[in-house]
Write a structure and sequence with these properties.
Length: 150
């Protein structure tokens, strides 16, 4: 027998729970957690994905920054932005939206993200922690699917 699963309802429930945790965090620390998303170019699917992330952050009470960079961005320019966010205490998480353009060395950029701020879990340090079963940030899409089925 099939079971109807309502992803939108589950997402709303998770965001409501997260909003409560964000409020507790703000009360304890006086700070609003922040996510910085970097989007290079005009990929339509990426635009939609980033817009949805931004909306979800706002609903949960997070500060959300979307840094839109031109398709001509170089690896060095992108590394400079990542470094700024690595050193910004108001940013708790960094996400560089993939795919990146061919002139950008993707692994160099992903490896430059501070592992503590790597919300996609792509940094080799986080991949290693995940593989040995230690606590770390997990890639959000597969993790969300796992939680959905649980």
């Amino acid at each position: 027998m099939a079971t109807l699963m309502d992803g939108k309802a589950l997402a709303a429930k998770v965001r409501a729970e997260l909003k409560t945790k964000v409020e507790d965090y703000k009360t304890k620390t006086g700070r609003v957690p922040g996510l910085a998303v970097v989007l290079v170019g005009e990929d339509a699917a990426s635009q939609v994905y980033v817009r949805m992330k931004n909306k979800a952050c706002e609903e949960a009470g997070y500060k959300s920054i979307v840094n839109r960079m031109p398709a001509t961005t170089t690896t060095e320019e992108l590394l400079s932005v990542v470094n700024e966010y690595n050193n910004d205490d108001t940013i708790n998480g960094i996400l560089v939206q993939l795919p990146l353009h061919d002139q950008i060395v993707e692994n160099e950029v992903l490896y430059a993200i501070d592992p503590k701020k790597d919300v996609d879990g792509f940094h080799p340090f986080n991949v290693g922690l995940m593989n040995i079963g230690d606590d770390t940030l997990f890639p959000c899409t597969p993790y969300g699917c796992t939680k959905f089925f649980e």
